[in-house]
Amino acid sequence: MKSSKTLYVGVGLLSALVLAAIFAPLITSFDPNEPDYVNTLLGPTSQHWLGTDPLGRDVFTRLIYGARIDLAIGLLAVVLPFIIGVSLGLLTGWRGGKTDSIIMRVVDTFIAFPFYVLAIALVFIFGPGIKSIIIAITLVGWVAYCRIVRANVLVAKEQDYIHAARLTGLPSSRILRRHMLPNVISQSIVFAMSDIVLSILAIVSLGYLGLGVPVPTAEWGSMIQEGQGYISEQWWLATLPGLMVVYVGFSLSLIGDGLVARLER
Amino acid sequence: MLPVLFGISIAVFAIVHLIPGDPADVLLGQNATDARVKILNKKLGIDRPLLVQYFAFIWDLLHGSLGTSFYNRESVTSLILGRLPETGMLLFGGVLLSILIALPLSILAASKRGAFRDQLVRAIPIVGLGMPQVWVGVMLILLLGLRFPLFPVSGFGETFPERIHSIFLPSLTIAILLSPILIRSLRASMLEILDSDYVLTARAKGISTARITRVHVLRNAIIASVTVLGINIAYLVGSMVVVERVFAISGTGSLMIDSIARRDYPIVQGVTLYFAFIVVLVSLITDLIHAALDPRVVMK
User: Which of helix, strand or coil describes residue A36?
Assistant: First the structure.
């Protein structure tokens, strides 16, 4: 009962923001990226609820449109790592032996790289932009799923239902897909919730460093960076985009906790 | 550990050689003619076969050389070493502060499971893990640098006390990012310790809670935090790169980001390698500390 509540509250909070992002043009009539040099750095007014930024753009509008970018890329960026990591984890746990030791050495190597350092290096290679962010997160992110699934496969492999499936002569691919996968995937799904947060944090950090989504597109990280210069007067410029991330992180962490409790039953 | 180091060297080498375009083109800018590009490529050794370049890279590496900067011809090793005080102090300060924050809070939470203070501490990771690194930094600048101007908001200072003063906010930023992770594992491991037979035995002997906490719980909790820190060192080091930027500290992370703008390949390569080495090294050190603190662990 209590776990369902956590899950629903999390889903509710997140959906509210997702809906706002989708229907942004209906909520606000301003353009998120068009400068308006007459109305720069306004405080909150009845027209501009949260004031305007140094280029006169409506802060509320940019926060909502920023959700489009940060949520979409954050979500998109974990899809590939999830698929790659889960598949390789299944394979390496199931096959064992040489396959396992080679894949695990690769995993160990990737783990030694601090994520941001590797991401920055990769953005350096492919140039700033959405494509680079997704490549960087994919290259680094699959490792965690691979390890989680592998550990679960190693346990499940020795269980009776898998032995039974093997004895009936089913091909490995079918055993893995129909019998193994549904039993080993739950932990990865839970991890994916916190992984989305991690990838949003990465997008925000790269945006701050000027290596992420190119300006002037509304994105929370670059908004924090732009706001930092005006921190002593217009403190909310840098504060609010960060709070948006905290909001997303909070709702996803509720969803994650709710899922854990649900899957453990 | 050796296969990992080998893997790292290949990965770092690949990173730089995957880059589209010609570094000579970038270096020469508008002055780039085909002939000049060719001469420069020869000078930089980029025209040689990949395998030869890789072995040259390893050979130099074994001699402690990471090449020279394209930008100002300085040795990459000395450039990195020159930034070491900043990065080292930030790493040390961040870890120290995060333990100082996480340890008491975890003890407080675990000592009365389910109580209000426990709920409060358990909420920290839920909120804390969603905070962007750069944002935490900017918020600390706002609060402790401007509203209550207790600390400098950027730079690194000249004398040692000045440096400690100016490294405090960046370290606190790291600590705020790191302590939610620490708290989550520490609270769990402390609950386990408090449930253990030896604590029960100690209680039965009439030993006071304060003493049990100090002698039994604290020691084990420190072992646990060392392990957790070891696991999260890669995350920690990566966050440092970003935090250095927020506070305009010219550490190794800033060196890397500046070099990206200049497309200074050897530095990007060198710093990436250097950070990966730090991670491997710190993991090793935490394993050794773990073994030294915990008599049950035997190093092979």
Answer: coil
Q: Report the gap between the CA of B225 and the closest CA in chain A (Å).
A: 19
CATH classification of the domain holding A218: 1.10.3720.10
pLDDT-above-70 percentage for chain B: 93
How far is C-alpha B140 from the chain's CA centre?
A: 19
Mean pLDDT (whole number) for A26-44: 83
**Shared domain check, B148 and B28:** no
Q: Which residue of A has its CA nearest to B134?
A: A205
Find the mean pLDDT for residues B280-300: 79
Q: Length of chain A in residues, anyone?
A: 265
Whether B179 is in a domain gets the answer: yes
CB distance B129–A239 less than 8 Å?
A: no
Min distance B222 CA to chain A CA atoms (Å): 23
Nearest chain B residue (CA) to A201:
B132
Nearest residue of A to residue B18, measured between CA atoms:
A125
Question: Measured between beta carbons, which residues in chain B are less than 8 angstroms from residue A253?
Answer: 125-126, 129-130
Q: Structure pTM?
A: 0.88
Boundary-marking domain end, from B11, B31, B62: B62
3-state secondary structure of B45: coil
Residue B225 is part of which domain span? 79-299
Six-digit token string for B260: 């990206």
Total structural domains within chain B: 2
B241–A114 C-beta distance less than 8 A = yes
Rounded to whole angstroms, the Cα distance separating B221 from B225 reads: 6
- Residues B51 and B139 occupy one common structural domain: no
Query: Do residues B193 and B113 lie in contact, with contact meaning Cβ atoms separated by under 8 Å?
Result: no
* Minimal Cβ distance to A109: which of B4, B134, B238: B4
B15, B134, B178, B274, best to mutate vs chain A, most A CBs in 10 Å: B134
Percent of chain B whose pLDDT exceeds 90: 14
Residue B144 contacts A where some CB pair is shorter than 8 Å: no
Same domain for B119 and B260, yes or no, is yes
A112, A194, A242: residue with CB nearest B132: A242
Band the pLDDT of B23: cuts 50, 70, 90.
Answer: low
Residue B248 · residue A84 · CB < 8 Å: no
In a domain, B139, yes or no: yes
- Pair B249, B154: CB distance under 8 Å: yes
Q: Is B70 a member of any domain?
A: no
Contacts of A114 in chain B (CB under 8 A): 234-238, 241, 275-276, 279
Closest residue in B to A108 (Cα) is B4
Most trustworthy range by pLDDT among A111-120, B248-257, B262-271 = B248-257
Which range marks the domain in which residue A62 is found?
A: 2-263
Question: Which of A6, A7, A113 is best to mutate for the B interface (most B CBs within 10 A)?
Answer: A113
**In this structure, what is the dihedral angle of CA atoms A259, A260, A264, A265, given to the nearest 10 degrees?**
-40
Distance CA B221, CA B92 (A): 19
CATH code of B84's domain: 1.10.3720.10
